[in-house]
Amino acid sequence: MKRQVLVLARALALVLRRQTDVPPDGVAIHYSRTIRPMFWVMLAVNPVDIVMVEVVVKSAPVRIALLVLEILGALWFLALVATLYKYPHSVGRDGLRVRYLSFFDQRIPLASIDSVRQTSRSLKARGGVSVPEDGVLAVGISQATNLSIALREPRLVDLGRKGTVEITQLDLWADDPRAAVAAIRDQLPASV
Q1: Which H or E element spans position 82?
Q2: Distance (Å, rounded) from C-alpha 171 to C-alpha 180?
Q3: What confidence score (pLDDT) does residue 92 get?
Q4: CA distance 132 to 123
Q5: What whole-number distance in Å separates Cα of residue 69 and Cα of residue 49?
Q6: Over the stretch 128-146, which tens digit does the pLDDT of each residue have?
Q7: φ, ψ dihedrals at 75, nearest 5°
Q8: More confident residue, 150 or 63
Q9: C-alpha distance from residue 64 to each of 56, 59, 60, 68 (Å)
Q10: What confidence category does residue 126 fall into, taking pLDDT thresholds of 50, 70 and 90?
């Protein structure tokens, strides 16, 4: 939980500094274009909750407590929205960094990548990080992925509460899959 709060706070700090968490030699691979509008709508609804509490709740101490909770909730959600913009996937000399909001952050060394290709895949889960099926870890958006990265050998990935799993392939979503494939291939060692 502490790590999550720090990651969210850092996203807000990146907004204030007008920076994105991508290495200086790296290329950002954005993944959130399709879900951003939904997040902004959810954030815009927050003031309605505040007004409803003011109208419905008569007790001043309860209204104040609920107002504080609403403000903290709005700040937390604003930080979550910031992660959509400030924590993209990225590729650079240090490898491929795959992210999902503030919940998942995995680095794959370039030497571990066997191939990368554009391919569409539908997922059973709504989005986010799925537990691997047949060694394939999917980091999808809106029940889909559009990039597939085959690994040279199995790799252990920590999924937090879901445990550590072994993967041989990583499927993910990129807003511009052609550019993402090109960016990853440009960074791969010549022998790949």
Answers
A1: helix 60-86
A2: 12
A3: 94
A4: 11
A5: 11
A6: 888 777 889 999 888 889 9
A7: -65, -45
A8: 150
A9: 13, 9, 6, 6
A10: low
Q: Is the pLDDT of residue 182 over 80?
A: yes
* pLDDT value at residue 127: 63
Residue type present at position 49: D
Residue 170, SS3 per DSSP? strand
Q: What is the pTM of this model?
A: 0.83
Strand partners, 156: 166
What is the rounded distance in angstroms from the CA atom of residue 101 to the CA atom of residue 113? 23
- 71-104 residues labelled b (16+ CB within 10 A) or e (exposed): eeeeeeebbbbbbbebbbbbbbeebbbbbbbbeb
The residue assigned the tokens 């994105």 is 20
- Judged by phi (left if over 0) then psi (alpha if -120 to 50, else beta), residue 160 lies in left
CB atoms within 10 A of CB 8: 20
Look-up of token digits 């990039």:
147
In this structure, what token pair is assigned to residue 53?
């509490």
Report d(CA 89, CA 87) in Å as an integer. 7
